[in-house]
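Example (one chain per record):
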Amino acid sequence: MRLNEIDYGAAQPIEGYGPGFFRLGGEAHAAPVLIAPGLVRAWGGYGDADTLLGLAGQVDVLFIGTGGDIGHIPPALRSALEEAGLGVEIMASPAACRTYNVLLSEGRRIAVALIGV
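Predicted structure:
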């Protein structure tokens, strides 16, 4: 078996998560949280569209983790994000964390907004 070390550059992968938090760089951040290369900040949830819209032009795809199970986001939020040019992918938060890390390791322009687990 061949193992390859993953280089994330200056970006920080999601190291772990648990009830109400996500861990990056050894530090726990309370959910809901927005994570993008060079950015980790509190997010106000589905009612905080402005924070997500601020990513337009900086990322190509935004993953939204809806918690422990996949759920729906408000249609108006999805429409606003797509109109701003953001690709939006909805998934359960654990899957969003894994997918974010994989694409981050590939150098992709991505972000993830996580409600919780």
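Caption: The domain at 14-114 is CATH 3.40.1230.10 (Hypothetical Protein Mth938; Chain: A,).
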